[in-house]
# Entry
Amino acid sequence: MSETPPQLTSPKKPSSDKKHWSKRWWFRSLLILLILASYTGWQMSDISHFGHTDDGSSADCAIVLGAAAWHQKPSPVFKERINHAILLLKQNRIKSIILTGGFGDNAEYAESEVARKYCLENGVQPHQIHIETTSQTTEQNITEAYKIMQQQGFNTSLIVSDPWHLKRACNIARHYNISAKPSATKTSLYTSEKTQFKFLWKEFLNIHLWRLN
# Structure
């Protein structure tokens, strides 16, 4: 009696539903990545454009955002910010300069004190300079400067920093109802594409972190 040969079964193929789900997953992932990349590019472009915009208007004062000081000398980046504020003063676009920045680690002098010394050495009159010595962040720079504005009866300001710093700074000022416009230093030492991109990327992250607070 002959035996019936066993029937061979073909290997199971992935169901059409599984294939369809996999394609949809990859499509959605790609779409999300494209949206995020587009949003990031748009935001970084806007940060750069905003910082390079200066309508030439005047104000009661310039708020110079703090940067590192090297003992009794401003760092090169800080020096160029101060130079720009002095230029605004010479152009009669402002009446006074508010210098911001507190004490760094183990620092003998506050950033603003170092900046004041530099201003005096470059012809700025003592009555044209106001300083605060407690701030450690951009937001504190601006809120401490605003206290000085209120004390001095200043209503309007130009915020001075490197171009890529100014959108966040002006957004902070607007949050506190401070009348402020951007005026970036034209001589920023962030000259290479690599350093500019690092600054720009950092500001992209910082401005979104600030909005989440």
In short: The mean pLDDT is 88.
